[in-house]
């Protein structure tokens, strides 16, 4: 016994060592790949052909170059392209072009094998940028830093070696002798497509002159026949901050300027402040105390519309103390121009966190409504804060509340007891009060017209893929269920819809038409570059009417991809002032180029707040505050339907199948876990469609989802359909595996719902039994008992070992006698099958093969011999019993005589 125990311990120890070795190898592999450096290079020919190289990716992977043409570095892409890269033995490469001189292009990479985007410096929205064979080589921006160093930025012919050749001089004039002549190779910055270097520091008032030398072409570049020059001016008196009283001024408005100046001298100083603006100088005498001084300056102006770059000088008795660029100054002219319409669309969504038995598995719906962060001394959630701030400010927004989110809110308000599977990490009573308050406030804002509510297919399915799967009837049902529940909560009939994940294809148009949907929101970068223009223009800042080949149509507003991404990934993680400034400047820039247009910002409404709980609430407040301040002459907010009805539209067709992510890989990229979810949903749908047709009901029913019985409906079959719609939700595949790599619970939730459907139907079929078979030379008689409370429309198939015979039957509740034209063929074994009469059009994408009879719901393997022996025994026994009984009666009768 001791030896046996030791043997068991040794086996356990070896198992532990084996696991340790395996995990160590995995860890080392991960470390190796995590340390692999990605290097990107490129070459440009004189004809404009550009070859881009990337190394650091294993040669057996597949890489796509995703690139576009833009108006300038980091701006929105006007045209978008993809090209597969080729492994050349050292790296992946792709040649694109030719491009005309001065064209700006931008690119990132997509690793198809790992489903990973490769951006510049791993920043989600930074691209490599390149100006093709620029003709303005030598265009320069130089600034003196507080320590006397000089930052020089210039345009060069990338990727050439670009050198700054500089020296010290006594002034800016050409022909002056240089000293300390130095050459420095400048660094190319792919983020902005220019070259830069830092030289110095130098002594105060020292003049520096320079020219550029392209070491690759051996060409020199100067400043229109002169040298570039700058005076190294810095002193104890410094500008430490400048801002305007408005982010954007209208022509004729007084410019208000706040200036903070630090006087490093121990005594007071009197200096002249000179502002250079649009070739004019404005001079102000200023008295500075030691330390920080705040000055306010006003300038009357009637400047033309544009963006100006003023400079400010501080002069003391002819000596320049500082010379600083001021922030860009935005001036708009509103004369005879329509304002731009800002349409903000928030997508409010949470998947179903409730199990089929009604138990809550995740806490996020109540927590994100009542307990995300402190605001004005109270704990509030992301959904609640949105309602509070919309109510506070003068603006209009468009919001879609996914019905599955509304469903869970209503469930929490209706259910008597909150059954959570673990320990709830909050105060559910507080959260339910917050839900009630938040919903009522949103209803009030809707009635006031400050909010337009869009609907969504009920459980947020990935519609493009499911339409391709042939499940369009499910999509139609979910759209109508979504409309019904939105009407139930808000009392409105939504005519606009949020297409989940903006995953759209042209097949959805007729579903939208059939369900009374007039418009949706899609991503500009993902769709607009690829459409066919029927009438009008492809200016993105307008409504579009999208027509299909059958004459159905919907309106589409394309979101500004760049601005929407900045909302999602930048504006909620920085100082509120910077967020206000960047937002209003971007809107003003759009107004200058396209007055009267529509600017659509569309994104998740809760995620930027949830992911940035410290800065997010203040940034959202800043966004709404800034928009309210400028609401009026050049900027207005409109709801989506208001913008569509008040603007002219163009007509397009042939939108590609795509999503905001520029493909559908997040939901179906070949990863095993995602494939398993789709397989289970397909199998569950096969079973459910088959059962439904067998019952004579309509497939893809519009289920009433009462919040009092979540997630179940009024009858079993409707409940199973509701389960299927839950399993079709996009969140499960989004979170499973790469690239999201979310919690495993999401995959489990999809599997639980699809498996519940399959297991329930199999269990139902166990209530159908084959009682007996009686066979003659021409016919076989089946005795089948149906214990279900339903009649079933089926096809029965009997196989006698050689032939099949089939018939359409109605299997009523109770005992059914079915006569089939097939004999026993001398074989005592029978196989009996019950099929639901379905076809591939009704099933769509399925994993279980259909036969000519349909989908098999039940199978019986029956031995006729055993049945006949029992029957004949009973028969003979009965006859013998009668004979014996007759003899007994006869003898009793005789005895009585």
Low-confidence stretches: 1-35, 865-885, 887-893
What structural class results from the helix and strand content? alpha+beta
Residue-averaged pLDDT: 91
Our measurement of the CA-to-CA distance between the termini, rounded to an integer number of angstroms, reads 85 Å
**Approximate strand percentage:** 25-35%
Task: Give the strand line-up of the largest sheet.
Answer: 34-35-38-37-41-36
The geometry reads as elongated
Number of DSSP helices?
20
Please describe the biggest sheet, giving its number of strands, its sense, and whether it closes into a barrel: 6 strands, mixed
Helix content: 25-40%
Tell me what the structure shows.
By secondary structure, this protein is an alpha+beta fold. The strands form twelve sheets. Strands 34-35-38-37-41-36 form a six-stranded mixed beta sheet. Strands 3, 4, 7, 8 and 9 form a five-stranded antiparallel beta sheet that branches. A hairpin with a 4-residue loop joins β5 (86-87) and β6. The protein starts with a helix and ends with a helix.
Key features of this structure:
single chain; six-stranded mixed beta sheet; 20 helices; 31% strand; disordered N terminus
Question: What is the secondary structure topology, with strand pairs?
Answer:
Elements: H1 2-35, E1 39-44, E2 50-55, E3 63-70, E4 77-84, E5 86-87, E6 92-96, E7 104-111, E8 116-118, E9 128-131, E10 140-144, E11 150-154, E12 162-169, E13 179-185, E14 187-189, E15 194-199, E16 206-214, E17 219-221, E18 228-232, E19 237-244, E20 249-250, E21 255-263, E22 269-277, E23 280-288, E24 291-299, E25 306-308, E26 311-316, E27 319-325, E28 329-332, E29 340-348, H2 364-370, E30 373-375, E31 378-380, H3 382-392, E32 397-401, H4 403-414, H5 428-448, E33 451-454, H6 463-468, H7 472-490, E34 496-497, H8 508-514, E35 519-523, H9 524-527, E36 532-535, E37 544-547, E38 553-559, H10 561-569, H11 576-593, E39 598-604, H12 607-611, H13 616-630, E40 635-637, H14 640-645, E41 650-653, H15 672-694, H16 716-727, H17 730-735, H18 745-765, E42 768-775, E43 780-786, E44 792-799, E45 804-811, E46 814-820, E47 829-836, H19 840-843, E48 855-863, H20 864-896
Parallel strand pairs: 20-28, 29-32, 29-39, 29-40, 32-33, 34-35, 35-38, 37-41
Antiparallel strand pairs: 1-2, 2-6, 3-4, 3-7, 5-6, 7-8, 7-9, 10-11, 11-15, 12-13, 12-16, 14-15, 16-17, 16-18, 19-21, 21-24, 22-23, 22-26, 25-28, 26-27, 30-31, 36-41, 37-38, 42-43, 43-46, 44-45, 44-47, 47-48
Helix pairs in contact: 2-5, 3-5, 3-13, 4-7, 7-8, 11-13, 15-16, 15-18, 16-18
